[in-house]
Predict the 3D structure of the following.
Amino acid sequence: MTYTHNEDVVINGSLTLDHGTDVNEFSTDTTLDGDSNDAVPTEAAVKDYIDKACMIGSANAAWVPCAFEGTNPEGSMRSGEQMENVDGTNHYPRYMLCLPTNRGGKKLYVSGVRVLVQDADNDDYLSMTKVIGITYSGSPTAILNSSTDVKSAQRHEKTFTATDCSSYDMVAVTLYCSVTTAYELGIRGVTVKAYYA
């Protein structure tokens, strides 16, 4: 049976159907923190929640941790609470951003890099930070080349114009470490600012 009603319907209480829970609210809470079985979120609330959770849109960009891949020369760093050099040889650790460059019809954009530098001084320091796009069939492409020397303990951060990375298979961070003394430069907390659009 179909019933047509051409005026607003006001329910003072809960909406009860033959099966399931009673509904007492159409919620606009974009955090979904209420955790309620009696509230139905609106389309806009669901979209906003998913956009934030999936980093969709520049307003929802997040700093994403990168995974240590290796260093050149091999074995020139050791892991522990932080990555640090094991001798006085310059070395170049690389970290991978573990995000797909295309996801659900959205493109990956990156717009910043952070590195927590420990125990740096005039003899042992971070001399260059590079963000690169990598394809399986071609040469790496520079997204950022920052030759700023970091000669003190600090959170080193570089932001740049958001770059479309959808044509790459992966994104990586390469660090250039200038050292003269073993165990005198520590690297940790490598993150990239990223979002999808």
